[in-house]
């Protein structure tokens, strides 16, 4: 790949970018240019935009060697976000490690709709169930300065990442982190205006069809929704009622094929469904329901 050749090659940023992007494209990567930028900027310890201001700069051997290692690991399957250790979500930079699911752009819809629900509340209380990297909880606290947020996760390793992200963005004083399997570690009097969650919802059959880099590298605990994909919802939906205030809202990210099943479960548990919102691809993505006695 980037090894020395018989004929000397001037490995400028331009040359490295063009070679790597082409190679990633041949391998079928979804975003070859972006991934090449991320890895090279990480190897050079600079911002992506700086690559273009240094376009014709020849890269020193040690930096090129570091870049070569990153590219090789990416070709072996490791997601670029884990290699660089960060992911942008809701215009905020988040630390990510293999202990947490890599935040997806589709999940930003969950944050946007939660912010709309609490916009007129003087001091909203929000619960993020299955916080992972903390991207939902931190984004809400960052945008809604009057909000108090609790973020729970069964994984203590994930909570450690989430705490660091909260501290990095200065919202740690307004987020309470709790190691809990759904609601089991919470007090009965912990109640909220909004409960938001992006739970594991991939069915066993769907899991086998996921991209290899997702199956091999991202935490199965954050993906596996049981045989039918509804195992966590079957506990989360009825359990949330006990911790929602009267008139409170439950917002759930869902899989593309789960709308009917989610509607059935919400209605069975006594919620009033406001709507199921579709994402930019036109797929069902977010169920929004209200607790009304």
Task: Characterise the protein shown here.
The chain has 293 residues and is of the alpha/beta class. The chain has 2 domains: 13-76; 87-291, 3-Layer(aba) Sandwich (Rossmann fold), CATH 3.40.50. The protein contains 12 helices and 9 strands. A 7-stranded mixed sheet has the order 5-4-3-6-7-9-8, sandwiched between helices. Strands 1-2 form a two-stranded antiparallel ribbon. Helix 1 crosses helix 2. It starts with 12 loop residues before the first helix and ends with a strand. The mean pLDDT is 94.
Number of strands: 9
End-to-end gap? 64 Å
Relative helix content:
25-40%
**In the CATH hierarchy, what is the class of the largest domain?**
Alpha Beta
Q: Going by CATH, what is the homologous superfamily of the largest domain?
A: Vaccinia Virus protein VP39
Strand order of the largest sheet: 5-4-3-6-7-9-8
Main sheet properties: 7 strands, mixed
Q: Please count the helical segments.
A: 12
Radius of gyration: 21 Å
Give the amount of beta strand, in percent: 15-25%
From the helix content, strand content and strand pairing, which structural class follows?
alpha/beta
Give the rounded overall mean pLDDT.
Answer: 94
Short description:
With 293 residues, the protein is of the alpha/beta class. The protein is built from twelve helices and nine strands.
What are the defining features of this structure?
Rossmann fold, seven-stranded mixed beta sheet, alpha/beta
Helix-strand layout with pairing:
Layout: H1 13-26, H2 32-44, H3 48-53, H4 61-75, H5 80-84, E1 86-89, E2 92-95, H6 108-118, E3 125-129, H7 135-143, E4 148-153, H8 156-168, E5 175-179, E6 192-197, H9 204-209, H10 212-217, H11 233-241, E7 244-253, H12 259-268, E8 271-278, E9 284-291
Helix pairs in contact: 1-2, 2-4, 6-7
């Amino acid at each position: 790949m980037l090894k020395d050749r018989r004929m000397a090659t001037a490995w400028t940023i331009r040359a490295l970018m063009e070679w790597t992007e082409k190679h990633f494209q041949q391998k079928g990567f979804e975003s070859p240019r972006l991934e090449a930028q991320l890895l090279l900027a990480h190897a050079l310890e600079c911002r992506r935009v700086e690559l273009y201001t240094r376009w014709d700069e020849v890269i020193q051997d040690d930096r090129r060697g570091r870049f070569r290692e990153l590219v090789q690991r990416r070709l072996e399957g490791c997601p670029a976000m884990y290699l660089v250790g960060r992911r942008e979500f809701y215009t905020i930079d988040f630390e990510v490690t293999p202990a947490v699911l890599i935040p997806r752009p589709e999940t930003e819809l969950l944050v946007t709709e939660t912010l709309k629900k609490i916009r007129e509340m003087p001091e909203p209380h929000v619960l993020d169930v299955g916080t992972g990297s903390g991207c939902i909880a931190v984004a809400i606290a960052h945008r809604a300065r009057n909000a108090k947020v609790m973020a729970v996760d069964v994984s203590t390793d994930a909570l450690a990442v989430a705490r660091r992200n909260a501290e990095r963005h200065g919202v740690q004083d307004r987020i309470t982190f709790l190691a809990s399997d759904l609601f089991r570690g919470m007090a009965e009097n912990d109640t909220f205006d909004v409960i938001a969650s992006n739970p594991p919802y991939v069915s066993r059959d769907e899991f086998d069809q996921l991209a290899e880099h997702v199956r091999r590298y991202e935490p199965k605990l954050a993906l596996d929704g049981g045989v039918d994909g509804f195992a966590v919802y079957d506990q989360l939906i009825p359990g949330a009622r006990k911790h929602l205030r009267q008139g409170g809202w439950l917002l759930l990210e869902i899989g593309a094929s789960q709308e009917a099943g989610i509607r059935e479960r919400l209605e069975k548990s006594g919620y009033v469904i406001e709507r199921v919102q579709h994402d930019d691809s036109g797929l069902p993505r977010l169920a929004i329901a209200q607790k009304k006695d």
